Amino acid sequence: MTRKFLWLIFTGILLMYSGSAAALTQIKLGLVTKTGSPQTIVAEKFKELIEQASEGDINVQILHAESSGNETEILKQIQMNTVQMGIITAGSFDTFDPVVRVINYPFLFKDDEQADKILDGPLGAKILKSLERAGFKGLCFSESGFRDLTNNKHFVKTPDDLKGLKIRITASALQKAIWQGLGADPIPMPWPIYTPLEQGVIDGQDNPLWVLKVYKFYEIQKYLTLTRHVYSPHIDVASYKWWKTLDVKTKDLIQKTIHEAAVFQRHDNRANNAARLSFLKAEGMQIEEHPDIDAFRAKVAGLKDTDLYSEPRIQALLIEMMNAAQ
């Protein structure tokens, strides 16, 4: 009787532990930037929120700073479910689903509030849904922010000042078209780019203000132009292959906590921009705060009629987006 009782206890303990192990969900989350970046802020906030809310049943492993490769390589791993989630620059999705070109259309959004309203609404949901055809579950949008131009040659106030400047771009057909339209020489190049900038392989780049501070571009780039030519979100995604294996409760929890983390990060990013600009001035960057935006906008106004947006579903969504942003 005693042996039978002890055996039942032992079996119960085994079942309890095996059940806990089975319930534990491991999430590998990939991003390409280092500590202090918006992607890391989203990832760390998400990890904090979901591990607390799940009472330890979900564990998030953040793969920092290229430990899984560049963003294109991370996206391929997400497709295969070797990495479950990612915080990825929208432009990096270009070769997987060109619908993202709608978001990165130049001079589309007037300000942060308008970007939030549109991307958190039905039009943003259409973009996230579209990514399923490429193997991604689009969850929400966090942000890098509005992109500005830096270079180490001279002040840039009008598009004419861009002639001959070698500007780094990602592997994005849209970015290439934008900078060619503005008169620059776009050079596709993966991240990081500090050394190519320092060595003069490229003359300049475009990114939000946080990048200039976190990656110390003020050491090697003398001129900053506040063009705000493209709003650059991050798309927070999961492997669609993995997502389909999850129960409804887990999906809802992931969706809720990643969106909460994204909203937290957007607010944090914007609250620090004034201080970043002051810091860059103090570090000696020469800043053109009032470029001829109308001239820049006019140079790229015809992009909507090019092959980049010729696919009917993309053309229709771009028109909807442009109407919403008027």
Q: The biggest beta sheet, please?
A: 5 strands, mixed
Distance between the termini: 80 Å
What is the H-and-E element order?
Answer: HEHEHEHHEEEHEHEHEEHHHEHH
The CATH class label is: Alpha Beta
Could you name the CATH homologous superfamily? Answer: Bacterial extracellular solute-binding protein, family 7
Using DSSP, what is the number of strands? 11
Query: Which fold name is given in CATH as the topology?
Result: D-Maltodextrin-Binding Protein, domain 2
Mean pLDDT over all positions: 92
Spans of 5+ residues with little confidence (pLDDT < 50)?
A: 5-22
The helicity comes to 40-55%
Number of domains: 1
What would your notes on this structure say?
- By secondary structure, this protein is of the alpha/beta class.
- The chain has a single domain (24-324), classed as D-Maltodextrin-Binding Protein, domain 2 (3-Layer(aba) Sandwich), CATH 3.40.190.170.
- It has helices spanning 2-23, 38-53, 71-80, 112-119, 122-130, 173-182, 194-199, 209-214, 240-243, 248-271, 273-282, 293-300, 312-324, and strands at 25-30, 58-63, 85-89, 136-146, 148-151, 166-169, 185-188, 204-207, 223-225, 231-239, 286-288.
- The strands form 3 sheets. It has a 5-stranded mixed sheet, sandwiched between helices.
- Helix 2 (38-53) packs antiparallel against helix 10.
- It is globular.
